[in-house]
Every structure is written in structure tokens, then in C-alpha cells.
Amino acid sequence: MSNPTAAMVVIGDEILSGRTRDANMHYLAGQLTEAGISLEEVRVVSDVHERIVAAVREMSDTYDHVFTSGGIGPTHDDITADAIGAAFGKNVDIRADARDLLSAHYARTGSELNEARLRMARIPDDAVLIDNPVSVAPGFRLNNVYVMAGVPSVFQAMVASVLPTLTGGAPLLSKTLRIDRGEGDIAGPLGLVAQEHPHLSIGSYPFQKDGRFGSNIVIRGTDAAELEAVGSDLVARLDAVTS
Amino acid sequence: MSNPTAAMVVIGDEILSGRTRDANMHYLAGQLTEAGISLEEVRVVSDVHERIVAAVREMSDTYDHVFTSGGIGPTHDDITADAIGAAFGKNVDIRADARDLLSAHYARTGSELNEARLRMARIPDDAVLIDNPVSVAPGFRLNNVYVMAGVPSVFQAMVASVLPTLTGGAPLLSKTLRIDRGEGDIAGPLGLVAQEHPHLSIGSYPFQKDGRFGSNIVIRGTDAAELEAVGSDLVARLDAVTS
């Protein structure tokens, strides 16, 4: 696949404890697929400096783009900015551009820009701010890493700020066939069709609905007409097996 | 932290494409937390052999327990068993114990144990099977890695089989009753039996076969004789309802 690649690092004790069900991964995955960028890996790591540093370094070396969510708020456990700085050997301190955004915002809303809130202006040297139209405190990009908030509404707004700046490949299209038979019944013909079209991604995702097993067959590629043709071919072969 | 540590590897093109929102991570996170096991990291990797091998090796070296979900079905894209074997240098082939489970199941249900379904008996040498009371095809444990299905109902049943072995309690046994009636028909007596035995876990997993609804009732506990007795009691009460 020649589309750009991406990975995500979720900084999330609250996901790992089961208290919160992740929403950002699912959102980003859909957005990237639409944009023709291939999300290849996601890591959910706990709020531990060394783990964030290690994951970000490895993902940054391996994939074209890396997106992080979480840990850029005002409390003591928001350690993402320092971890990103450490990952790339950059100094991290309160930066004038970020502080100006915050002070204007808090002056407007009548809140105090206290020490805690000022933590949200801690940005690594050479990083470029990411616009936050929801709650002002910015994200940032350093090298190929986009650092964004964990709150879903803010995360989504930041993704909207960032995505147009990325060059995607041809949008990856998908055709889904819902087959009311279990995978064991259809695996033979399905495997043959997959072999005959090695440049397409053909996945089988079993489901159980009302006690009945079925399979969603997802054919992915960039040519809509080809997806239709392969889908019809597969359905015909499965019908032949049935009758 | 002195609690045992755990990590999860989700084998999931369908998660990374945004087509499906992960449910297993959230489920496992909650279960492990309840059990006093600390989930420290989750990786979602694409269905690529080398990536699965690398993730499993690294997580197995780093954490006490590793759980995987996905990729153990009968289709061409189910490559997890081979990846786990490769991660630990173990041969992977159709194993007699797994094949016997499948052949008994398909004989019972009148389906053919074809070549595709036999793929689900491919188990690495030295692995220990994980009970699958929902759809029989087993998971397995190899070293500290627990390999489980991606379908949430099956994943959850396998977690229920595995978790008691981690907390050091008495092994949890299960008795499965295949009832040829839908859940709506049996819910009354089933609920009474569950109420009378609060220390047992009694689950109902509906299915539909040849246009008829049925239910697999799974009773879990530590006393084999008690499971037999409760199972017989339940069958008797259901017969009384029928007649």
C-alpha cells in the first residue's frame, strides 16, 4: 500500500483501568481512512514518562505521522508535553505564543490565568501550535508527532485543524458484504478470491447476532468499480457453494 | 505497584480502519481491574505477521500476562496462531486435542469439519487450550500469552475461563447445557436457578440454527459435582415448563 502511514499513542490510565471507553481512537481511525492515510498501529500507554517517550520515539521512527491524545491539561499528571520534548531532545517551557492565547482567553472569560493553567502553555521548542477552537489551550506538532487533547470534543476539533495539512493518498474505499453464514462455511471461496486479488485487502469479520453467526466481508481498495466486481464475483461463488 | 501487570495485543485491521469500535479492550480492562491485575499497555496492530510477532514478543518480555484478541478463525486472514508460534519458536499444526473438540462439535451440529474449520485446530506445540463454551473453537495459552477470539461474546467467555487461573483461586470449571429453546422461553426458570446459586456464574449465550432459536447455558464454579447437580436441576425445571 503506497498511502501514507500513521500511528496513534493514547495516553490513558483511564482507558487502561476500564473506567472510560476510548472514543478518540475510533474517531481518528475513521477520519484517517477517509483521508487516504493508513492507520497501522495504536498504543495505549499509562501515564508514565518513560513509556510515553519510548512509544512516541518508536512510532515516530516507524510511521509517517503520529497522533497522541491526552495528558496536555493543567494538572500534575499532565506530562505529555515534557515527554514529547524528551523524545526529541527539546527544551520545554512556557512559550509566549501559547501564553498569549491563554491570557487573552481567560481575560475574556474573567478567569485567572493561574500557575496550573499556565502549564498548558508549556510547549517544546520548535513545536508548531495546533489550533483549539473549543477550549483554546493549544496542541502542538513536533516533527511528525501531533499532540492533541484527550477530551473527545477537543480532540476532534484538533483533528479537524490538522487533517487538511496532511497529504493523503487516494481515499481507501470499502465494500462490505454481510453474509448470513459463519466463517467456516465461506472461508474456502473467500480465500481463493483473496489470492486472486493480492492488491486488495479482503478481511472477514465474524459476528454473532441474535444467536446466529455471520460474517462481514470487507473488501478495500481505491477503485470503486473493481470493489463492486470482486464483491459480485464472491457472492456468486458463495451461492454456488450453497446450492 | 506490586499487582501483577498485563498488556493486550488487539489484532485488528477492522479497528484500525475505523469500521469497528473496539469493545474487547474496554471489557478486559474492567475485568482485570476487578481482579487486581494492572493493565499497563494495549497495542492495536494490523493483520501483518511480523507486526504481531514483534508486539507479542515485546509485551511478553515486559509484562506478567499478555492477552491477544482476534485472528483465530477459519479464514485466510486469521494468522494469529502462526504468529504466536513464531514469536516463541514453536511449531504450529493441527493438534489432536483441538481437532477432537471441533469434530465432536460439528458432528453434533451436523456441519462439515471442512479444511477451513480445521484451521481452527492449528495450535502451537506446548500451548494449553482455552475453553470456548460459546462456539467451541479453542483459544490457547503459550507461556504468558493468552490467545483469544475477537468476537466479543467469545472473547468474554474466554476471559471468564482464564481469569480465575490468574488470581490464584481455585480453578473455575464450567458446564455447558445446549438448550433447544430461545432465551425468552427459558429466562424465568434460569433466573430462579441463578438466584438460588449466587456464588455460581450462570450465563446464557443465544444461538440460531436451521431457523430455530436455542441457548447455550454456561454454569461456572469450582465444584464439579455442584455444577452437575445444578445443571440437572435446571434441565428438570425447563422440562416441567415445556410439558
Strand and helix layout:
The structure is a homodimer of 243-residue chains.
Chain A: E1 5-11, H1 13-16, H2 24-35, E2 38-45, H3 49-62, E3 65-69, H4 80-87, E4 92-94, H5 96-109, H6 115-118, E5 122-124, E6 128-130, E7 139-142, E8 145-148, H7 152-162, E9 173-179, H8 183-196, E10 201-209, E11 212-221, H9 224-242
Parallel strand pairs in A: 1-2, 1-3, 3-8
Antiparallel strand pairs in A: 4-5, 6-7, 7-8, 9-11, 10-11
Question: What does this entry look like structurally?
Answer:
- Chain A has helices at 13-16, 24-35, 49-62, 80-87, 96-109, 115-118, 152-162, 183-196, 224-242; strands at 5-11, 38-45, 65-69, 92-94, 122-124, 128-130, 139-142, 145-148, 173-179, 201-209, 212-221.
- Chain A is an alpha/beta fold and 243 residues long.
- The first copy, chain A, has two domains: 5-165, Molybdenum Cofactor Biosythetic Enzyme, Chain A; 173-242, Alpha-Beta Plaits (2-Layer Sandwich).
- In chain A, helix 3 crosses helix 4.
- The interface between A and B is large, with 52 and 58 residues.
- Chains A, B: It comes from Litoreibacter roseus.
- Chains A, B: Pfam families: FLAD1_M (PF24102), MoCF_biosynth (PF00994).
> What is the distance, rounded to the nearest whole angstrom, between the alpha carbons of the first and last residues of chain A?
37 Å
Report the helical percentage of chain A.
40-55%
- CATH fold description of the largest domain in chain A: Molybdenum Cofactor Biosythetic Enzyme, Chain A
Task: Walk across the major sheet of chain A and give the strand order.
Answer: 2-1-3-8-7-6
**Poorly predicted spans of chain A:** none
Helix and strand content put the structural class of chain A at alpha/beta
CATH homologous superfamily title of the largest domain in chain A: MoaB/Mog-like domain
Computed over alpha carbons, the radius of gyration of chain A is 22 Å
Number of helices of chain A: 9
In the residues of chain A, how many domains can be counted?
2
Largest interface: A-B, 52 and 58 residues
Counting copies of identical and different chains, the oligomeric state is homodimer
By CATH, the architecture of the largest domain in chain A is named 3-Layer(aba) Sandwich
Largest beta sheet of chain A, briefly? 6 strands, mixed
Order of helices and strands of chain A: EHHEHEHEHHEEEEHEHEEH
* CATH top level assignment of the largest domain in chain A: Alpha Beta
Give the number of DSSP strands of chain A.
Answer: 11
Shape type of chain A: elongated
